[in-house]
Amino acid sequence: MKKIAIVTGASRGIGLSISKMLLSLDFKVYGICRYPEKCNFNHQDFHLYKGDLRESKTIPLFLDQIPTKQNITLLVNNAGIAYFSPIEELSSEKINEMVQVNLTTPMILTQSLTRVLKENSGRIIFIGSVSGEEISPWGNVYGSLKAGIHHFARLLFDELRKLSVKVHLIIPDITKTEFYDHLNIEPDTDPKSYLLPDQITNIIKNLLLDQSGLVIPEIVVKPEIFKLKRKKFQK
Predict the structure, then answer these.
(1) Which CATH number applies to 4-178+196-222?
(2) How many CA atoms are closer than 13 Å to the CA of 233, on its beta-carbon side?
(3) Rounded mean pLDDT of 154-163?
(4) How far out from the chain centre does Cα 97 lie?
(5) Cα–Cα dist 25/103, whole Å
(6) How far are the Cα atoms of 22, 73, 94, 96, 208 from residue 204, in angstroms, in the given order?
(7) Cα separations in angstroms, 202 against 27, 86, 174, 197, 209
(8) For the chain, what are the domain ranges?
(9) 208 contacts 123 by C-beta, under 8 angstroms
C-alpha cells in the first residue's frame, strides 16, 4: 500500500506545489480546500475534497472519507487565511475565521492523526509565516495566530520526537501566491523580493528525503530583498 499524505489548502499555491512533489515521491495525497472545482490539476493519486476549514465539523467529515487511514504517514498543515486592517475595523466574523483556519483546525487535525502517525513513524509539517515572528502593522490578529501555531509546532516537536514522529516548522516570508488576492498589498515585481511555492516545496522535499538521522525542526526562508507594493485600484 502507498503511503498517504494529508494536505490542507491543497488546490493552489504552496499546498498544490507540495501535493505535486509528494505524488512524485509515490505518495497518495488527500487534500482539502474550499473550491476543488477551481483546481485544474489531475492525478490518479491526488484526491481533492471540498471542505470549509472555517467550520469545526469539516475535519471529521473529511477524515471519514479517507480509506486506509492506517497508512497515513504525513500531515501538512498548510491552509491559512488573513485579513489585514486596524483592529477596530476587523469584524468578529473575520477574526473567528482566522482563529479557526490558522490555529484551531491544524491543532484538531494534528490531534486527530497523531496516533496513526506515531504508529507509522510519520511526520507533521506546519507552514507558518514570518508574520508570526515579526511586528506586522495591521496584521496583529493574523500574526498572533501564526505565533501561536509556531509555538504549538515547537512544543509538539519535543513531545513527539521520542515517539519517532518528526515535526517540522517552515516559516516563509513573502511568497507569490493567491494569498494576496483579497489584500491591498502584493509582492513587488522584482523577482528577488519574493519566494515561489516550488522553492518552499524543494526545502520540504529535502527534509523528506534526508536519511541522516538528524531532524531539522525549524526553517525560516526569506527572499534576497524585502519589498512589497500597494495595489492600484480602478476608480
Answers:
(1) 3.40.50.720
(2) 7
(3) 96
(4) 16
(5) 29
(6) 10, 15, 30, 30, 6
(7) 16, 35, 16, 9, 11
(8) 4-178+196-222
(9) yes
Share of the chain above pLDDT 70, in %: 93
- 55-75: per-residue pLDDT in tens? 989 999 999 999 899 999 999
Enumerate the H helices of 72-139 as residue ranges: 92-99, 105-119
State the virtual CA torsion across 115, 117, 121, 126 in degrees, nearest 10: -130
Q: In what order do the strands lie in the sheet with 72-77?
A: 46-50, 28-33, 4-8, 72-77, 123-127, 166-172, 218-221
Q: Which residues pair with 68 in a beta bridge?
A: none
Distance between CA 233 and CA 227 in Å, rounded?
19
Question: What distance in Å separates the CA atoms of residue 112 and residue 106, rounded to the nearest whole number?
Answer: 10
Q: How far apart are CA 70 and CA 67, in angstroms?
A: 8
| Residue from 129, 232, 228, 217 nearest 188 by CA | 228
Torsion of CA 126, 129, 130, 133, to 10 degrees: -60
For residues 14 and 175, the answer to whether their CB atoms sit within 8 Å is yes
Asked whether the whole model's pTM tops 0.90, one would answer yes
Cα–Cα distance list, 143 to 17, 41, 59, 104, 105 (Å): 24, 31, 24, 15, 16
